[in-house]
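We treat protein structure as text, and this decision shapes the records that our systems exchange. The remainder of this section carries one protein's record, kept here as part of the documentation:
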Amino acid sequence: MFVRCKKNKSGSTSVQIIDKSSGKYILYQTVGSSTDSVEIDFLVTKAKKIIETHGGQSLLPFDKEKELSFVDTFINSLNAMELVGPELLLG
């Protein structure tokens, strides 16, 4: 499921929740329509919350700061690096 903003002939923008799990675009719900950009942003966030509560799509918890601190800890814990692969293969 994803959020689609579609322009209408009247000039307004409709915010829709679309499901494409079966290969076809299926309209799940129309959240609303507006010509105001602030209202459209509000409708997009509302649609994303609907998707989260529906259970259609899971969000992966990525935390950039935790990942970078883990990489820094890993690199700082390396004392020495030795190339032993060719020695094991060639004797």
User: Anything to note?
Assistant: The chain has a mean pLDDT of 86. Residues 1 and 21 are 7 Å apart (CA to CA). The two ends are 56 Å apart (CA to CA).
